């Protein structure tokens, strides 16, 4: 039999990359920006974190560099959407394509090498897993209890009103985008440095897109993001268990499970939001819209 | 201080000038990247953009131009229609893969029958497969309000795994000595998609791409549905009041782009690729998004943009061979191109004026 506690610990690890990326994207979307570049920022984080960990021998340094790289690679997206009024959907896609290419290009030298072993924290879990769990209340507190979070939500809900009140909409959004990039970078690095222990091209395999879906699923709350990440982690662990147990279903079909689960969850939650009173659920009012101050 | 003043109408001049500027800027930034990586920037840029057309091996690479451009143009034509209406199908890669599979399924089922109807039936099956895969996000959006962006993208990963399953399971070549991958359709005359005019690289996909350019041009500028699509994209509320049903447009746009992507997949698997493997999807579905934007969502623009991006593919391969540049260079180029294009796009919608300080 499978030990339920061990299974839950596996679930915590499996959900960590998505948890980081989705918490970051949550803050970005609450600021009114839709960044579809999560996948690109994650893969850049995965490579830079892995390369740093490999060359320095220090995995934690890898995560720090991954956060920095994730924030940096989001910079073109930030400039495009905040200063050049570019369409956010297209700019986010461009960021994903660019990030995937960039990581593939610079990842050649570290192909086939292994990451250094990380020291583990309580319950044999990686420290980064604990950091991710700690980020949930931190983000919740920031969004709901801090003054800066209130301003950020105001900017996301109605950027014209926030601007009229004298808040710098762009600055808030630039900071949010950088935070989202850093979180996605850490999430990506968790895959390469702490899970797979290797670098392979395209290794994030859609995790960034799943994170985007989980933000919708969360109804734009930090606790909802945690629930979504755990749900996803659960499906992943279950799928791997079934593979290991030698179930008579082709491996390729089993490995579809996380993606299909994401679609099903997305559909269920969208339906609830559609048929509930407030159309679009708790989506921020200015989400995805250009902000151009005439004065 | 520079100030942005919104234009009442998009500038026709900048509409055409900005893609050219974006390409130029990409070459410059790309050159810089090569210099950082320790390659000679001038010869790298020449190898990618010039040699495939006019270099010593141009005879071969010019043929490849149409082979690579056809799927890009075919897919981008469909995507652009949806993008015009604000319907974001970014899962064309998945529709391409499914089209390749359903199309190839007809051939593999009919093997080794020599009849003439097989290839046309494959094209229809490929289009239907892509259409069906595109209708999944369409219906989920119409019925439940699920984001077509995320659903269509998730379905890419699902499609990739179906392709892998097919290549290792149901479609595996029984005479393939245990190797994964289906029978090679190039060796099955009734099902293959051969070069139509020797030396040009033109196969049926090229014909279909040309037809798609014409058909989408007609649709968007001469047909009432095209008018509805443009109306829904620029003024959704007004379009709604005019009786345009958003649900109909979602189904139409995702279905159309899915069908075209599916056909592109079929032409590829019956022609240049030859067989179903776990690597049927080579990224055309994603690159086609760049083609659609670079071509300004206009059929003629897409034609030119498709040829240009095909050139970067071929140039990238050439640079891989002659200069040992990594294959991913092209991907970075394509990403940068989209960045620059979106950035310069500002000029079509805003006027830059010097702020007069009183």
TrEMBL record, chain A:
Keywords: Cell membrane, Membrane, Transmembrane, Transmembrane helix. CDD domains: TM_PBP1_transp_TpRbsC_like. The chain crosses the membrane at residues 31-53, 60-83, 89-107, 119-143, 174-197, 209-233, 253-271. It holds the Pfam family BPD_transp_2. It is found in: Cell membrane. It is a multi-pass membrane protein. PANTHER family: ABC TRANSPORTER PERMEASE PROTEIN, SUGAR ABC TRANSPORTER INTEGRAL MEMBRANE PROTEIN-RELATED. This is ABC transporter permease. It comes from Paracoccus aerius.
Automatic annotation (TrEMBL), chain B:
It is a multi-pass membrane protein. InterPro entries: ABC_transp_permease. The chain crosses the membrane at residues 12-37, 69-87, 94-111, 117-140, 149-168, 202-220, 249-270, 276-295, 302-322, 328-347. Keywords: Cell membrane, Membrane, Transmembrane, Transmembrane helix. It is found in: Cell membrane. It holds the Pfam family BPD_transp_2. This is ABC transporter permease. It comes from Paracoccus aerius.
């Amino acid at each position: 039999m499978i030990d339920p506690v061990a299974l839950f610990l596996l679930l915590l690890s499996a959900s960590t990359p998505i948890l980081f990326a989705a918490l970051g994207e949550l803050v970005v979307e609450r600021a009114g920006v839709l960044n579809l570049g999560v996948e690109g920022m994650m893969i850049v984080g995965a490579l830079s974190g892995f390369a740093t960990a490999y060359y320095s021998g220090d995995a934690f340094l890898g995560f720090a560099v991954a956060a920095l790289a994730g924030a940096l690679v989001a910079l073109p997206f930030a400039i495009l959407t905040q200063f050049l009024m570019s369409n956010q959907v297209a700019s986010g896609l461009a960021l994903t394509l660019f990030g995937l290419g960039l990581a593939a290009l610079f990842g050649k030298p570290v192909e086939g090498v292994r990451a250094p072993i990380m020291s583990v924290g309580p319950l044999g879990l990686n420290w980064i897993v604990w950091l991710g769990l700690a980020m949930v209340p931190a983000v919740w507190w920031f969004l709901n209890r801090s003054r800066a979070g209130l301003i950020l939500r105001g900017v996301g809900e109605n950027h014209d009103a926030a601007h009229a009140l004298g808040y710098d909409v762009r600055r808030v959004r630039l900071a949010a985008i950088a935070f989202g990039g850093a979180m996605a970078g850490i999430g990506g690095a968790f895959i390469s440095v702490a899970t797979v222990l290797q670098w392979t091209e395209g290794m994030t395999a859609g995790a960034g897109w799943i994170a985007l879906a989980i933000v919708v699923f969360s109804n734009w709350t930090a606790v909802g993001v945690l629930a979504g990440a755990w749900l996803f982690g659960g499906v992943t662990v279950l799928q791997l268990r079934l593979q290991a147990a030698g179930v008579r279903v082709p491996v390729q079909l089993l490995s579809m499970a996380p993606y299909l689960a994401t679609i099903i969850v997305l559909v269920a939650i969208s339906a609830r939001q559609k048929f509930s009173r407030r159309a679009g659920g708790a989506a921020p009012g200015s989400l995805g819209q250009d902000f151009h101050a005439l004065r | 201080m520079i100030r942005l003043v919104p234009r009442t109408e998009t500038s026709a001049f900048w509409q055409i000038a900005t893609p050219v500027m974006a390409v130029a800027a990409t070459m410059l930034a790309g050159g810089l990247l090569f210099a950082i990586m320790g390659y000679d920037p001038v010869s790298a840029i020449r190898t990618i953009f010039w040699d495939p057309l006019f270099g010593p091996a141009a005879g071969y690479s010019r043929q490849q131009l149409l082979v690579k451009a056809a799927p890009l143009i075919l897919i981008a034509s469909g995507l652009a229609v949806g993008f015009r209406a604000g319907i974001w199908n970014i899962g064309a890669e998945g529709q391409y893969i499914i089209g390749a599979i359903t199309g190839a399924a007809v051939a593999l089922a009919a093997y080794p029958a020599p009849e003439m109807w097989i290839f046309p039936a494959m094209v229809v099956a490929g289009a239907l497969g892509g259409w069906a895969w595109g209708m999944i996000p369409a219906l989920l959006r119409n019925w439940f309000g699920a984001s077509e962006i995320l659903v269509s993208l998730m379905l890419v990963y699902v499609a990739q795994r179906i392709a892998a399953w097919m290549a290792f399971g149901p479609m595996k070549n029984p005479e393939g000595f245990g190797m994964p991958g289906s029978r090679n359709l190039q060796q099955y005359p009734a099902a293959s998609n051969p070069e139509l005019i020797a030396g040009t690289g033109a196969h049926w996909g090229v014909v279909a791409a040309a037809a798609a350019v014409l058909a989408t041009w007609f649709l968007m500028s001469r047909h009432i549905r095209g008018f509805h699509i443009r109306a829904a994209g620029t003024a959704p509320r007004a379009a709604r009041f005019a009786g345009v049903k958003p649900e109909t447009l979602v189904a139409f746009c995702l279905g159309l782009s899915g069908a075209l992507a599916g056909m592109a997949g079929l032409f590829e698997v019956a022609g240049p690729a030859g067989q179903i493997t776990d690597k049927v999807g080579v990224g055309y579905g994603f690159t086609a998004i760049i083609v659609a934007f670079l071509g300004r969502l206009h059929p003629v623009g897409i034609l030119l943009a498709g040829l240009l991006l095909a050139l970067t593919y071929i140039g990238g391969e050439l640079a891989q061979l002659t200069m040992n540049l990594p294959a991913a260079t092209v991907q970075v180029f394509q990403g940068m191109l989209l960045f620059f294009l979106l950035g310069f796009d500002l000029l079509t919608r805003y006027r830059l004026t010097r702020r007069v300080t009183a």
